[in-house]
Amino acid sequence: MKKIGIIGAMEVEVQTLTSSMTGEDGTGDAKLIKSAHLSFYDGMLSGVRAVVVKSGVGKVNAALCAERLISEFGVTHIVNTGIAGAASSSLDVLDIVVSTDAMYHDVDATLFGYKPCEIPQMDTYRFPADENLIRAAEKAFAKTDAAKKHRLLKGRVASGDQFIASGKTKRRIKELCDPACIEMEGAAIAHTCYVNDVPFVIIRAMSDAADDNGGKAIAFNEKAAAEESAAIVIEMMKLL
Question: Which domains does the chain have, with CATH numbers?
Answer without folding.
Answer: 4-237 (3.40.50.1580)
